[in-house]
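Q: I have two molecules that I believe assemble together. Could you output structure tokens for the complex as a whole instead of separate predictions?
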Amino acid sequence: MLDKTTTFNLLYDFYRPLLKESQRTFMELYYVEDWSLGEIAEHYSISRQAVHDRIKRVEKALIAFESALRLVEKFEQRKKLVRELKQKLRTGTDISQIEQLLDRLLEID
Amino acid sequence: MLDKTTTFNLLYDFYRPLLKESQRTFMELYYVEDWSLGEIAEHYSISRQAVHDRIKRVEKALIAFESALRLVEKFEQRKKLVRELKQKLRTGTDISQIEQLLDRLLEID
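A: Yes, here they are, computed for all two components at once.
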């Protein structure tokens, strides 16, 4: 199970292009640069609550994108399959089995 | 170079979850079921021009999604890399080279 910061960093990595400029700024500061809500609030002269609400909204949007497109989930599936492939290569599994795994890799889309 | 129908079918495949229900219905009929603009217009009792405009708007949205996320482009890159991998497997390339290609496959994300 990933912690919240890692999860949202990952989601942000995949879906950043779908966010608006202002949404990106807040995510960048809070999740990537690790600013506190208070620091962001002070920097933009808005309330801590306003910063909190905006970040919550972006988090919701990121979760909605993932539940629609599942890019992070598919990426994790591909990573697992590649690990499996490497292991099979090293143990000298026959080519047809490796080719089947490669085909499965393409089906994750 | 893919023709227009194939291109939009492919884009629709990847980005359908991001479209609204009504946008999906029109894309489904026009691109997947191959209805004409006139047939869709008649079925929904709206003008041919209105159908045309709606489909154009969805096409624009699909192009915008692809230019943001490049899912179709990445899928094509992965397909090409898997073809390359299969060829190398058959010609007995050494494992370290194949592993490098597998790592490149994961970097396409």
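A: One point stands out. DSSP finds six helices and no strands in chain A.
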